[in-house]
Protein backbone atom coordinates (compact mmCIF):
# COMPACT_ATOMS: atom_id res chain seq x y z
CA UNK A 1 0.00 0.00 0.00
CA UNK A 2 1.31 3.45 -0.87
CA UNK A 3 0.15 6.91 0.22
CA UNK A 4 1.43 10.11 -1.37
CA UNK A 5 1.17 13.35 0.63
CA UNK A 6 1.04 16.90 -0.73
CA UNK A 7 2.03 20.16 0.94
CA UNK A 8 4.01 18.59 3.78
CA UNK A 9 5.74 21.31 5.82
CA UNK A 10 8.86 20.91 7.94
CA UNK A 11 6.77 21.22 11.10
CA UNK A 12 4.75 18.18 10.04
CA UNK A 13 7.75 15.93 9.42
CA UNK A 14 8.16 14.64 13.03
CA UNK A 15 4.48 13.60 13.20
CA UNK A 16 4.76 12.03 9.76
CA UNK A 17 7.86 10.07 10.86
CA UNK A 18 5.93 8.82 13.91
CA UNK A 19 3.00 7.73 11.75
CA UNK A 20 5.32 5.89 9.36
CA UNK A 21 7.02 4.13 12.28
CA UNK A 22 3.64 2.99 13.60
CA UNK A 23 2.55 1.86 10.11
CA UNK A 24 5.56 0.06 8.58
CA UNK A 25 3.26 -1.74 6.12
CA UNK A 26 2.50 1.56 4.35
CA UNK A 27 4.93 3.17 1.93
CA UNK A 28 4.70 6.96 2.23
CA UNK A 29 6.16 9.50 -0.12
CA UNK A 30 5.59 13.24 -0.02
CA UNK A 31 6.26 16.66 -1.48
CA UNK A 32 6.12 20.15 -0.01
CA UNK A 33 4.17 21.27 -3.09
CA UNK A 34 0.39 21.50 -3.18
CA UNK A 35 -1.80 19.46 -5.52
CA UNK A 36 -1.92 21.13 -8.92
CA UNK A 37 -2.04 19.82 -12.50
CA UNK A 38 1.76 20.17 -12.48
CA UNK A 39 2.25 18.03 -9.35
CA UNK A 40 -0.62 15.54 -9.63
CA UNK A 41 1.51 12.97 -11.47
CA UNK A 42 3.90 12.79 -8.49
CA UNK A 43 1.31 10.54 -6.84
CA UNK A 44 1.49 7.95 -9.65
CA UNK A 45 1.63 4.43 -8.23
CA UNK A 46 -0.07 5.41 -4.97
CA UNK A 47 -3.36 4.08 -3.63
CA UNK A 48 -4.37 7.32 -1.97
CA UNK A 49 -3.30 10.87 -1.30
CA UNK A 50 -3.20 13.03 1.82
CA UNK A 51 -3.31 16.74 1.19
CA UNK A 52 -3.86 20.22 2.63
CA UNK A 53 -4.26 23.52 0.81
CA UNK A 54 -6.48 26.57 0.89
CA UNK A 55 -6.53 26.95 -2.91
CA UNK A 56 -9.18 25.08 -4.96
CA UNK A 57 -8.73 21.40 -5.81
CA UNK A 58 -9.24 21.88 -9.53
CA UNK A 59 -10.80 19.31 -11.82
CA UNK A 60 -7.67 18.93 -13.93
CA UNK A 61 -5.63 17.74 -10.93
CA UNK A 62 -8.35 15.29 -9.93
CA UNK A 63 -8.57 14.09 -13.54
CA UNK A 64 -4.84 13.27 -13.48
CA UNK A 65 -5.18 11.42 -10.16
CA UNK A 66 -8.15 9.53 -11.60
CA UNK A 67 -6.15 8.58 -14.69
CA UNK A 68 -3.53 7.17 -12.33
CA UNK A 69 -6.26 5.10 -10.64
CA UNK A 70 -6.16 7.14 -7.40
CA UNK A 71 -9.61 7.43 -5.82
CA UNK A 72 -8.89 7.96 -2.12
CA UNK A 73 -8.31 11.52 -0.92
CA UNK A 74 -7.80 12.58 2.69
CA UNK A 75 -7.40 16.20 3.65
CA UNK A 76 -5.52 17.09 6.82
CA UNK A 77 -7.93 19.91 7.75
CA UNK A 78 -11.62 20.38 8.51
CA UNK A 79 -13.03 22.52 5.68
CA UNK A 80 -13.64 20.88 2.30
CA UNK A 81 -15.23 23.91 0.61
CA UNK A 82 -12.36 23.98 -1.90
CA UNK A 83 -13.61 20.72 -3.48
CA UNK A 84 -16.29 20.53 -6.13
CA UNK A 85 -18.31 17.46 -5.18
CA UNK A 86 -19.49 17.05 -8.79
CA UNK A 87 -15.87 16.37 -9.72
CA UNK A 88 -15.54 13.83 -6.91
CA UNK A 89 -18.76 12.17 -8.12
CA UNK A 90 -17.63 12.09 -11.75
CA UNK A 91 -14.36 10.41 -10.76
CA UNK A 92 -16.01 8.22 -8.10
CA UNK A 93 -13.54 9.46 -5.50
CA UNK A 94 -13.85 9.21 -1.73
CA UNK A 95 -12.94 12.12 0.53
CA UNK A 96 -12.18 12.24 4.25
CA UNK A 97 -11.37 15.25 6.43
CA UNK A 98 -10.15 15.77 10.00
CA UNK A 99 -13.29 17.12 11.63
CA UNK A 100 -11.78 17.56 15.09
CA UNK A 101 -8.01 18.12 15.21
CA UNK A 102 -8.08 20.81 17.87
CA UNK A 103 -11.16 22.99 18.29
CA UNK A 104 -9.24 24.72 21.09
CA UNK A 105 -6.62 26.01 18.65
CA UNK A 106 -9.17 28.01 16.68
CA UNK A 107 -11.43 28.91 19.61
CA UNK A 108 -8.44 30.27 21.59
CA UNK A 109 -7.36 32.33 18.62
CA UNK A 110 -10.83 33.88 18.28
CA UNK A 111 -11.11 34.59 22.00
CA UNK A 112 -7.62 36.13 22.02
CA UNK A 113 -8.56 38.34 19.08
CA UNK A 114 -11.61 39.54 21.02
CA UNK A 115 -9.42 40.34 24.04
CA UNK A 116 -6.84 42.17 21.94
CA UNK A 117 -9.53 44.31 20.36
CA UNK A 118 -11.32 44.99 23.66
CA UNK A 119 -8.05 46.07 25.32
CA UNK A 120 -6.94 48.02 22.20
CA UNK A 121 -3.63 46.17 22.19
CA UNK A 122 -2.62 47.18 18.62
CA UNK A 123 -2.89 50.85 19.66
CA UNK A 124 -1.04 50.19 22.92
CA UNK A 125 1.72 48.40 20.97
CA UNK A 126 2.17 51.41 18.67
CA UNK A 127 2.36 53.71 21.70
CA UNK A 128 4.94 51.39 23.28
CA UNK A 129 7.04 51.32 20.10
CA UNK A 130 7.02 55.15 20.20
CA UNK A 131 8.12 55.20 23.84
CA UNK A 132 4.68 56.39 24.95
CA UNK A 133 4.09 54.69 28.29
CA UNK A 134 0.95 56.64 29.24
CA UNK A 135 -2.53 55.20 29.90
CA UNK A 136 -4.88 57.49 27.99
CA UNK A 137 -6.60 57.35 25.62
CA UNK A 138 -6.39 53.57 25.19
CA UNK A 139 -8.94 52.62 27.82
CA UNK A 140 -10.25 49.08 27.32
CA UNK A 141 -13.43 47.12 27.76
CA UNK A 142 -13.90 43.91 29.79
CA UNK A 143 -15.17 40.55 28.51
CA UNK A 144 -17.74 40.43 31.31
CA UNK A 145 -19.45 43.54 29.97
CA UNK A 146 -19.88 41.98 26.52
CA UNK A 147 -22.66 39.97 25.00
CA UNK A 148 -20.89 37.73 22.54
CA UNK A 149 -22.87 36.24 19.67
CA UNK A 150 -21.41 32.92 18.59
CA UNK A 151 -22.58 31.86 15.14
CA UNK A 152 -22.03 28.12 14.79
CA UNK A 153 -22.12 25.73 17.71
CA UNK A 154 -20.09 22.86 16.32
CA UNK A 155 -16.89 21.70 18.03
CA UNK A 156 -15.08 25.04 17.66
CA UNK A 157 -18.04 27.25 18.53
CA UNK A 158 -18.76 25.22 21.66
CA UNK A 159 -15.18 25.49 22.93
CA UNK A 160 -15.27 29.24 22.20
CA UNK A 161 -18.50 29.48 24.22
CA UNK A 162 -16.88 27.75 27.22
CA UNK A 163 -13.87 30.04 27.06
CA UNK A 164 -16.00 33.17 26.74
CA UNK A 165 -18.19 32.11 29.65
CA UNK A 166 -15.00 31.55 31.66
CA UNK A 167 -14.07 35.16 30.93
CA UNK A 168 -17.47 36.28 32.17
CA UNK A 169 -19.14 37.20 28.87
CA UNK A 170 -22.82 36.68 28.30
CA UNK A 171 -23.02 34.31 25.34
CA UNK A 172 -25.86 34.02 22.85
CA UNK A 173 -25.68 31.55 19.99
CA UNK A 174 -27.17 30.77 16.62
CA UNK A 175 -26.99 27.63 14.54
CA UNK A 176 -29.40 25.87 12.22
CA UNK A 177 -28.44 22.64 14.00
CA UNK A 178 -29.01 22.84 17.73
CA UNK A 179 -26.56 21.24 20.15
CA UNK A 180 -28.18 19.63 23.18
CA UNK A 181 -25.88 21.17 25.75
CA UNK A 182 -26.13 24.68 24.31
CA UNK A 183 -29.90 24.22 24.11
CA UNK A 184 -30.01 23.16 27.78
CA UNK A 185 -28.08 26.28 28.70
CA UNK A 186 -30.70 28.33 26.85
CA UNK A 187 -28.11 30.15 24.75
CA UNK A 188 -29.82 29.91 21.36
CA UNK A 189 -31.59 32.90 19.88
CA UNK A 190 -34.22 32.24 17.23
CA UNK A 191 -32.69 34.17 14.37
CA UNK A 192 -29.52 35.80 13.15
CA UNK A 193 -31.34 39.14 13.26
CA UNK A 194 -31.85 38.68 17.00
CA UNK A 195 -28.18 37.82 17.47
CA UNK A 196 -27.09 40.82 15.40
CA UNK A 197 -29.35 43.08 17.45
CA UNK A 198 -28.05 41.94 20.85
CA UNK A 199 -24.37 41.13 20.39
CA UNK A 200 -21.51 43.49 21.22
CA UNK A 201 -19.10 41.01 19.67
CA UNK A 202 -19.87 38.49 16.92
CA UNK A 203 -17.65 35.51 16.23
CA UNK A 204 -18.14 33.15 13.27
CA UNK A 205 -17.64 29.40 13.62
CA UNK A 206 -19.60 27.92 10.72
CA UNK A 207 -18.37 26.04 7.65
CA UNK A 208 -18.75 27.80 4.31
CA UNK A 209 -21.70 26.48 2.31
CA UNK A 210 -23.57 27.71 -0.77
CA UNK A 211 -26.26 29.04 1.61
CA UNK A 212 -24.13 31.22 3.85
CA UNK A 213 -21.58 32.80 1.47
CA UNK A 214 -21.30 36.54 2.26
CA UNK A 215 -23.87 36.22 5.06
CA UNK A 216 -22.21 39.21 6.74
CA UNK A 217 -23.20 41.78 4.14
CA UNK A 218 -24.40 45.37 4.23
CA UNK A 219 -27.89 44.35 5.41
CA UNK A 220 -26.58 42.09 8.20
CA UNK A 221 -24.18 44.81 9.39
CA UNK A 222 -26.98 47.38 9.41
CA UNK A 223 -28.86 45.14 11.87
CA UNK A 224 -25.89 44.99 14.28
CA UNK A 225 -25.24 47.19 17.28
CA UNK A 226 -23.26 50.37 16.75
CA UNK A 227 -19.64 49.69 17.72
CA UNK A 228 -19.84 45.93 17.16
CA UNK A 229 -16.66 43.82 16.93
CA UNK A 230 -16.60 41.06 14.30
CA UNK A 231 -14.31 38.04 14.49
CA UNK A 232 -13.81 35.58 11.64
CA UNK A 233 -11.65 32.50 12.14
CA UNK A 234 -13.86 30.36 9.88
CA UNK A 235 -13.90 31.21 6.16
CA UNK A 236 -13.21 34.51 4.43
CA UNK A 237 -16.17 34.15 2.08
CA UNK A 238 -18.61 34.47 5.00
CA UNK A 239 -18.01 38.24 5.02
CA UNK A 240 -18.39 40.76 2.23
CA UNK A 241 -15.12 42.70 2.39
CA UNK A 242 -16.78 45.78 0.83
CA UNK A 243 -19.49 45.75 3.52
CA UNK A 244 -16.89 45.25 6.24
CA UNK A 245 -14.79 48.16 4.98
CA UNK A 246 -17.89 50.38 4.77
CA UNK A 247 -18.86 49.38 8.31
CA UNK A 248 -15.37 50.18 9.62
CA UNK A 249 -15.34 53.49 7.73
CA UNK A 250 -18.65 54.59 9.23
CA UNK A 251 -17.70 53.46 12.75
CA UNK A 252 -20.64 51.04 12.85
CA UNK A 253 -18.01 48.32 13.31
CA UNK A 254 -15.53 49.19 16.08
CA UNK A 255 -13.01 46.56 15.08
CA UNK A 256 -12.45 43.22 13.44
CA UNK A 257 -10.31 40.16 14.05
CA UNK A 258 -9.73 38.33 10.80
CA UNK A 259 -7.83 35.07 10.44
CA UNK A 260 -9.45 34.45 7.08
CA UNK A 261 -10.30 36.77 4.20
CA UNK A 262 -12.17 36.65 0.94
CA UNK A 263 -9.45 36.14 -1.72
CA UNK A 264 -6.88 35.43 1.01
CA UNK A 265 -4.84 33.29 -1.38
CA UNK A 266 -3.81 36.55 -3.09
CA UNK A 267 -1.74 37.43 -0.03
CA UNK A 268 -1.52 34.69 2.61
CA UNK A 269 1.36 32.22 2.64
CA UNK A 270 3.84 34.66 1.09
CA UNK A 271 6.38 37.17 2.45
CA UNK A 272 5.66 40.71 1.28
CA UNK A 273 8.35 42.59 3.21
CA UNK A 274 5.81 45.19 4.25
CA UNK A 275 2.06 45.75 4.27
CA UNK A 276 2.74 48.51 1.72
CA UNK A 277 3.55 45.79 -0.82
CA UNK A 278 0.26 43.85 -0.51
CA UNK A 279 -1.14 43.50 -4.04
CA UNK A 280 -4.83 43.26 -3.06
CA UNK A 281 -6.17 46.77 -2.37
CA UNK A 282 -9.07 45.63 -0.18
CA UNK A 283 -6.90 43.39 1.97
CA UNK A 284 -4.31 46.17 2.19
CA UNK A 285 -7.04 48.57 3.28
CA UNK A 286 -8.00 46.22 6.12
CA UNK A 287 -4.41 45.42 7.07
CA UNK A 288 -3.57 49.11 7.46
CA UNK A 289 -6.26 49.74 10.06
CA UNK A 290 -5.28 49.90 13.71
CA UNK A 291 -8.65 48.43 14.75
CA UNK A 292 -8.28 45.39 12.50
CA UNK A 293 -6.23 42.44 13.65
CA UNK A 294 -5.26 40.17 10.81
CA UNK A 295 -3.55 36.79 10.99
CA UNK A 296 -2.72 34.62 7.96
CA UNK A 297 -5.20 31.74 8.44
CA UNK A 298 -3.03 30.40 11.25
CA UNK A 299 -5.66 30.02 14.00
CA UNK A 300 -5.32 26.25 13.57
CA UNK A 301 -1.53 26.31 13.81
CA UNK A 302 -0.58 24.63 17.08
CA UNK A 303 1.60 21.63 17.86
CA UNK A 304 -1.43 19.65 19.04
CA UNK A 305 -3.36 20.40 15.86
CA UNK A 306 -0.48 19.43 13.57
CA UNK A 307 0.01 16.11 15.37
CA UNK A 308 -3.68 15.25 15.08
CA UNK A 309 -4.01 16.45 11.50
CA UNK A 310 -1.26 14.08 10.35
CA UNK A 311 -2.35 11.11 12.42
CA UNK A 312 -6.07 11.28 11.68
CA UNK A 313 -5.71 12.04 7.95
CA UNK A 314 -3.22 9.24 7.33
CA UNK A 315 -5.31 6.77 9.38
CA UNK A 316 -8.35 7.76 7.33
CA UNK A 317 -6.53 7.35 4.03
CA UNK A 318 -5.25 3.93 5.08
CA UNK A 319 -8.82 2.94 6.04
CA UNK A 320 -10.14 4.06 2.66
CA UNK A 321 -7.46 2.08 0.84
CA UNK A 322 -8.35 -0.99 2.91
CA UNK A 323 -11.99 -0.57 1.89
CA UNK A 324 -13.14 0.58 5.32
CA UNK A 325 -15.46 3.54 5.87
CA UNK A 326 -13.82 5.84 8.43
CA UNK A 327 -16.06 8.15 10.46
CA UNK A 328 -14.14 11.02 8.85
CA UNK A 329 -15.75 10.28 5.47
CA UNK A 330 -17.27 13.41 3.95
CA UNK A 331 -17.93 12.22 0.41
CA UNK A 332 -18.50 8.90 -1.25
CA UNK A 333 -20.72 8.28 -4.27
CA UNK A 334 -22.08 5.06 -2.82
C1 LIG B 1 -9.42 24.00 8.27
O1 LIG B 1 -9.06 23.08 9.00
O2 LIG B 1 -10.40 23.89 7.53
C2 LIG B 1 -8.66 25.25 8.26
O3 LIG B 1 -9.22 26.26 7.96
C3 LIG B 1 -7.20 25.17 8.53
C4 LIG B 1 -6.30 25.38 7.35
C5 LIG B 1 -5.03 24.64 7.53
C6 LIG B 1 -6.88 25.08 6.01
Automatic annotation (TrEMBL):
Keywords per UniProt: NAD, Oxidoreductase
Pfam families the UniProt entry points to: 2-Hacid_dh (PF00389), 2-Hacid_dh_C (PF02826)
Keyword tRNA processing carried by entry: no
InterPro entries (UniProt xref): D-isomer_2_OHA_DH_cat_dom, D-isomer_DH_CS, D-isomer_DH_CS1, D-isomer_DH_NAD-bd, D-LDH-like, NAD(P)-bd_dom_sf
GO molecular function: D-lactate dehydrogenase (NAD+) activity; NAD binding
Domain D-isomer specific 2-hydroxyacid dehydrogenase NAD-binding: 113-299
Record carries keyword RNA-binding: no
Domain D-isomer specific 2-hydroxyacid dehydrogenase catalytic: 9-330
Family named by the database record: Belongs to the D-isomer specific 2-hydroxyacid dehydrogenase family.
Protein name: D-2-hydroxyacid dehydrogenase
Taxonomic path: Bacteria, Bacillati, Bacillota, Bacilli, Lactobacillales
